[in-house]
Specification:
This protein is of the alpha+beta class. The protein is 44% helix and 20% strand. The protein has 26 helices and 28 strands. The strands form seven sheets. It has an eight-stranded mixed beta sheet with strand order 5-4-7-2-1-10-13-12. The protein has a five-stranded mixed beta sheet with strand order 15-16-17-19-18, with helices on one face. A hairpin with a 5-residue loop joins strand 24 and strand 25. The chain binds zinc ion. The site of zinc ion (ZN) has 5 residues, from helix 3 and helix 4.
């Protein structure tokens, strides 16, 4: 049961939390641990309140020295009455470990049997570890101590004060929100460094020690570069003492911004060959989490409706700081290509919401808003805001905002006040259309008469002020496309005539520089020129804008998927930007799967494989393009003999490392094609008994095209509670394949019949992801849509499942409408 906004508001008016003193004893083997907590808080005299508290069993509860009947704890919350002005609550309890990434997650490494724990209380899971007032605006100091096995290490937000045997004591933190308190424990490998007076550390499972040692140089360098850049931009220095970064297994997010101890999913520690764009993405995440130290940790949203104050800013600043301070300069290209597509998709779904909704009713609703809107659209909106007010005013406003609300909470209104003061511009009207209204505008260009038309969907007819670039590209004598000029234009009405109205050029690129957030449609001449001019443009950001606009037109059914495939075949083999290669291959594959008919699909897929194969042939041996092309080829080809050859080390393209990760990718494709089965999966897992190997094995087993294998996988998805979050997700993500669509046909109806029960056995994020991965998105048919409509008609439907089904069904509607 979620915490409602009304409950949180009432509780904040009743209590003022001062500190938590938490002792965790994790020495017992088994499913539980001991938690002893002292909470000190002020209150209105005589008032009642509650704390989140989900114990396995209660030892004792004492309020201000008097014992409280354990029945005050109903398994979910602990009710307290007759509060004093100053209160001390002492609770001893036995708590359950989790295997879904929320609460205190317990993980056993399949390689060496080592056990690791991490604490993730977000979004309202504090009660699974200790009794607490679990809402963002009740900040308090946390003092943690841990009794752990003697050979373990323990890290928390706070600095280590003492360690003797298995007793670990940490210093109290500055005031932080409950969802930001963390613990990481286990026999992990640790490396330390220091920068500008800030102690740095990196942690990972013992079985990843070699990888951590290899990659620590890059990780520490990026960390230091980003710290320096944030210190240049912000008046307040990094406020939480040490900066530790840990890699944790089965983590639900990419990473989480715990003050003083960021946790990353440990897939970000690479164990095989990766592309430069993967390394760029990791640098971006490092910068993103660091941005949160100010936006989110130092100044926190008052309630989850201002989630964007966390995520939009972290996404914007992470992308920006990675580009400005690290060697990964292409983050804005990735943003234009990949992140904005995520934002656009979410923004056009039935569940769309404003970047800054005025009211998010409860924590379940808040969880669903961790989407492309709160991250990517919000960040794109901030990029537009910077174009609108100028960078100096933007940074000055942020610094005012931090100064005014350090170690406290703030809202959209607070931020607008600071930005208005710094820029001297009234931002109320701007904020209303950009932050308070959902959905997206479409910008179209016509050359003669020269004009930019802005439109909005009938359901949300808001037009917005867009400051955009219009790039004029001509073919140079050497054959390349050169930007002659880029006009900066204010588009603020349904029709805008650019000042310099001469738009004669070989290509007119609307939204040159990717300043605004909108759907972009080129004029007819430019659109027709794309296949020939795209490969000739040297600016990767301009190419990303063109590719993104092309893909979006296919999603909308304005262009045929066959046209896209032809473009991919000619333009992709000469593409130099790895992220574009990866994203175009991924998006094209998905569109071919869902937008082509059973008749046209095999030929289209073959062309995608051919495009990837051509790129393999022309790419440099050992480089990122070759690896990206090989992955794309493996995913699309039906050439079983060639794939088997690669596994056996025959005919492998020069410089392509067929390491453990690539072996799994190849084997997985062979399994999907029916050319390998359980025996080969078992054999591969015996070679690679690691966390990643275990996950690939789970995914591959779900992909085996036999009735028994599908039945077993489905059973795991809908009923198995002993399976961890990640293994359930992997199983669900391996289940559906177009190659097996007849075999899995009975599971289309079973999805709609059985998912409501699945939601009851899994919590929060794990339930949401499982429902999403298990959705029969490849069974594109009117019958699937009818079943979806029937389920959506149920009034008792879980709100998380409702949103998953509603949005997935909307994607299917587009695909059905657009089918070629
Ligand atoms: Zn974030």
């Amino acid at each position: 049961m979620p915490l409602t906004r009304a409950e949180a508001t009432a509780r904040a008016a009743t209590v003022e939390v001062r500190s938590y003193e938490v002792h965790l004893d994790v020495t017992a083997s088994g499913d539980t641990f001991e938690s002893r907590t002292v909470v000190r808080f002020g209150a209105r005299v005589g008032a009642s309140t509650f704390l989140e508290f989900e114990p396995s069993s209660v030892g004792s509860i004492t309020l201000n020295g008097a014992s409280v009947d354990p029945s005050a704890a109903d398994g979910r919350r602990l009710a307290l009455a007759g509060l004093a002005e100053d209160n001390e609550l002492v609770v001893a309890a036995t708590m359950r470990y989790s295997n879904d990434g929320e609460g205190l997650h317990k993980y056993t490494d399949p390689g060496d049997g080592n056990v690791y724990l991490y604490q993730h209380l977000f979004i309202n899971n504090g009660g699974r570890v200790l009794p607490c007032f679990d809402q963002p605006d009740l900040k308090a100091s946390w003092q943690v101590s841990v009794t752990a096995p003697a050979d373990w290490k323990v890290a928390t937000n706070g600095a280590l004060v003492s360690q003797a045997g298995g007793e670990w004591r940490f210093a109290p933190t500055k005031p932080i929100s409950t969802y930001l308190a963390t613990v990481f424990a286990g026999p992990f490998h640790a490396l330390t460094d220091e920068h500008d007076g800030i102690p740095l550390a990196l942690y990972a499972r013992a079985s990843l020690a070699e990888q951590l040692d290899q990659q620590a140089g890059e990780l520490f360098t990026i960390t230091k570069q980003c710290l320096d850049r944030f210190h240049e931009m912000f008046d307040i220095r990094y406020p939480f003492g040490h900066y530790q970064q840990a890699f944790a297994p089965e983590f639900n997010f990419g990473a989480m911004e715990y003050p003083g101890l960021v946790i990353f999913r440990d897939e970000m520690l690479y164990r095989g060959a990766v592309t430069d764009s993967q390394r760029e993405s990791r640098a971006n995440v490092i910068a993103h989490e660091m941005a949160h130290m100010w936006f989110g940790d130092l100044v926190t949203m008052a309630w989850w409706d201002d989630l964007w104050l966390n995520e939009s800013f972290a996404e914007y600043l992470g992308t920006r700081v990675a580009a400005e301070a690290t060697s990964f300069k292409g983050t804005w290209t990735t943003f234009a290509m990949q992140r904005k597509a995520w934002g656009l998709r979410a923004d056009q779904h039935p569940s769309t919401h404003p970047v800054a909704p005025s009211e998010v009713g409860d924590t379940d609703q808040a969880l669903l808003n961790f989407d492309g809107i709160s991250y990517a659209k919000g960040a794109a909106t901030l990029k537009q805001l910077v174009a609108f007010v100028g960078d100096e005013a933007f940074l000055a406003g942020l610094n005012d905002h931090f100064a005014a609300h350090s170690y406290a909470n703030a809202t959209l209104a607070d931020l607008l006040r600071a930005l208005t003061k710094a820029s001297g511009r009234d931002l109320a009207a701007w904020a209303e259309v950009w932050l308070r209204q959902p959905q997206v505008n479409t910008l179209r260009l016509t050359r003669s008469p020269a004009s930019v038309q802005q439109s909005a969907p009938a359901s949300f007819p808001t037009l917005r002020p867009h400051k955009i670039g219009i790039g004029l590209f001509d073919r140079a004598p050497d054959g390349t496309m050169v930007r002659r000029t880029s006009l900066l234009v204010d588009v603020d009405a349904a029709e805008t005539t650019p000042v310099d109205a001469d738009l004669s050029a070989d290509l007119v690129l609307l939204n040159d520089g990717d300043l605004t957030y909108a759907k972009i449609r080129l004029d007819e001449t430019s659109a027709a020129a794309v296949p020939t001019v795209l490969p000739l443009i040297s600016d990767s950001l301009a190419r990303a804008v063109l590719w993104a606009s092309t893909l979006d037109a296919v999603v909308d059914g304005e262009r045929a998927v066959a046209e896209l495939v032809t473009l991919v075949l000619t333009a992709l083999p000469v593409e130099s930007e790895v992220v574009i290669i990866e994203d175009v291959l991924r998006a094209t594959r998905s569109l071919v799967d869902r937008y082509s008919t059973p008749e046209t699909r095999p030929a289209a897929l073959e062309l995608v494989a051919q495009a990837a194969d051509r790129l393999i042939a022309v790419s440099e041996p050992g480089g990122s393009r070759r690896l990206a092309a090989a992955r794309g080829f493996i995913g699309a080809t039906t050439d079983v003999a060639r794939l088997r050859g690669w596994l056996a080390g025959e005919g492998v393209p020069d410089g392509l490392a067929v390491d453990a990760d690539l072996r799994w990718l190849i084997l997985y494709r062979l399994v999907v094609l029916g050319a390998a089965g359980t025996a080969e999966i078992d054999e591969e897992y015996a070679r690679d008994r690691s966390a990643t190997g275990e996950q690939w094995a789970a995914r591959s087993r779900a992909a085996v095209p036999t009735a028994d294998a599908k039945a077993a996988a489905w059973q795991r998805i809908v009923t198995e509670v002993k399976l961890s979050n990640r293994l359930v997700e992997m199983t669900a993500s391996g289940f559906w394949h177009l190659e097996q669509i007849e075999l899995t046909a009975p599971y289309v109806a079973r999805y709609f019949a059985e998912m409501p029960d699945m939601m009851r056995i899994r919590s929060g994020m794990s339930a949401e992801k499982t429902a999403g991965y298990a959705y029969p998105e490849l069974a594109v048919s009117a019958e699937t849509r009818r079943l979806a409509a029937e389920l959506l008609g149920r009034e008792d439907l879980d709100p998380i499942l409702r949103r998953v089904v509603q949005d997935a069904d909307d994607d299917m509607r587009r695909a059905l409408d657009a089918r070629f």
